[in-house]
């Protein structure tokens, strides 16, 4: 008869070994569950997906459940390292491996890909997201009416583009998007669907969002990894001497912080307006939109480094008009002071911490290019707003953009 306490002690000791101390699937620390058919230790969240794979994986708590001697011996003979060496042997370098805080569909499809479909056990396994061309139907949010309509999307490595079409494909694509500045990140809560994906790109000096989903979790994750695959090829082509380690963070990325804040204009005497902010730490940009599901941003602030005169702090602004929220955040730049208001102190602390994370990082060569481009856009808008400078004018020979209808401060206070 199995010794319950002895086996529990053995399992807890196995779970403390370095190779088993993190979840085999998402990397969460201190897993309390184990698959006694796969021989791996997993966290509570991942154990839920394993329970749905009952023909492949059987789950027990290493603290609460009874374990037979044979099962304990099986766990001792296997473990997370052995499973990784077999089930993850040929994971493509671009393939996204979920982290503890990632959404359920990413975690579920990663687990199914490894243990159910065994996509990574053989080197030459056919994978749809590596074919060079990926196409299919996605539900896309309309720009104006907010309704989701089914649209055909085509992603191609041959011209590094993502295209989507309306009902009549004979008229050509509704939009052709370069993968050069393309990003994709799962946003199920924002979009209101468990498989919601936000695709972001640049067009005419603006950041543009597409919000899409697919009813099938496997399909939407395939789309996500197809985008990552083509982005990886593009980056390898554009930067042939860069290592995969340098390129991986740029394939796709989640944003450091998102949420509503109130903002005022450049004189700090304008009424505060509620806006949805996104902090992109890699591009060092704080973008804002009228709502969280807006297609086009209203403005962007470049966030430089501490060595270049940038700082952030909490504050209680005085003499401002129209602000309903009282937890202030001040961002200092070499030429401007920006004032934002948060609803709660927790939001205030999180924004300050996130902005400090960006400001504390030294600027890279490409950051200076981003800053200059953003500053040029601001100059163009100021010129048109004040002097009516037109395109190809010798004073300002680049394309000018109109001041946002949201108020003169929106495009006028962009980059410092």
From TrEMBL:
Keywords: Cytoplasm, GTPase activation, Metal-binding, Repeat, Zinc, Zinc-finger. InterPro entries: Arf-GAP_dual-PH_domain (IPR052589), ARFGAP/RecO (IPR037278), ArfGAP_dom (IPR001164), ArfGAP_dom_sf (IPR038508), PH-like_dom_sf (IPR011993), PH1_ADAP (IPR037849), PH2_ADAP (IPR037851), PH_domain (IPR001849). GO terms for biological process: heart development. This is ArfGAP with dual PH domains 2. It is found in: Cytoplasm. Pfam families: ArfGap, PH. PROSITE patterns: ARFGAP (PS50115), PH_DOMAIN (PS50003). GO terms for cellular component: cytoplasm; plasma membrane. Residues 8-128 form the Arf-GAP domain. Residues 131-232, 254-360 form the PH domain. GO terms for molecular function: GTPase activator activity; phosphatidylinositol bisphosphate binding; phosphatidylinositol-3,4,5-trisphosphate binding; zinc ion binding. It comes from Cyprinus carpio.
């Amino acid at each position: 008869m199995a010794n319950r306490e002895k086996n529990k002690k053995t399992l807890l000791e196995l779970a403390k070994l370095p190779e088993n101390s993190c979840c085999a699937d998402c990397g969460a620390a201190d897993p309390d569950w184990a698959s006694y058919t796969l021989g791996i230790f997993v966290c509570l969240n991942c154990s839920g997906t394993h329970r749905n794979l009952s023909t492949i994986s059987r789950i027990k708590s290493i603290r609460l459940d009874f374990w037979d001697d044979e099962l304990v011996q099986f766990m001792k003979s296997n473990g997370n390292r052995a499973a990784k060496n077999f089930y993850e042997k040929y994971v493509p370098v671009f393939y996204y491996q979920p982290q503890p805080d990632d959404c359920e569909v990413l975690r579920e499809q990663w687990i199914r890909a490894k243990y159910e479909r065994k996509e990574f056990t053989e080197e030459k396994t056919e994978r749809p997201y590596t074919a060079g061309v990926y196409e299919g139907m996605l539900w896309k949010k309309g720009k104006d009416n907010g309704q989701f309509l089914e649209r055909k999307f085509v992603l191609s490595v041959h011209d590094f583009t993502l295209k989507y079409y309306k009902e009549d494909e004979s008229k050509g694509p509704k939009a052709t998007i370069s993968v050069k500045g393309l990003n994709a990140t799962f946003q199920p809560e924002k979009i209101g669907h468990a498989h919601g994906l936000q695709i972001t790109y640049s067009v005419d000096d603006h950041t543009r969002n597409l919000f899409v989903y697919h009813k099938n979790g496997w399909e939407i994750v395939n789309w996500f990894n197809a985008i990552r695959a083509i982005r990886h090829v593009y980056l390898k082509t554009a930067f042939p001497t860069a290592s995969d380690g340098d390129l991986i963070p740029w394939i796709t990325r989640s944003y450091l912080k998102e949420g509503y804040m109130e903002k005022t204009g450049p004189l700090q005497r304008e009424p505060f307006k509620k806006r949805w902010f996104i902090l992109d730490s890699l591009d060092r940009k704080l973008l804002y939109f009228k709502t969280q599901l807006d297609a086009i941003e209203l403005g962007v602030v470049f966030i430089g480094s501490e060595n270049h005169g940038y700082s952030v702090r909490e504050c209680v602004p005085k003499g401002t008009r129209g602000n309903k929220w009282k937890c202030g955040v001040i961002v200092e730049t070499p030429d401007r002071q920006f004032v934002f208001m948060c609803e709660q102190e927790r939001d205030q602390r999180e924004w300050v911490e996130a902005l400090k994370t960006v400001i504390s990082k030294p600027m890279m060569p490409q950051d200076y290019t981003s800053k200059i481009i953003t500053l040029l856009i601001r100059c163009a808008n100021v010129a048109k707003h004040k002097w009516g400078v037109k395109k190809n004018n010798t004073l300002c020979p680049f394309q000018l953009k109109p001041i946002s209808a949201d108020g003169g401060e929106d495009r006028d206070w962009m980059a410092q």
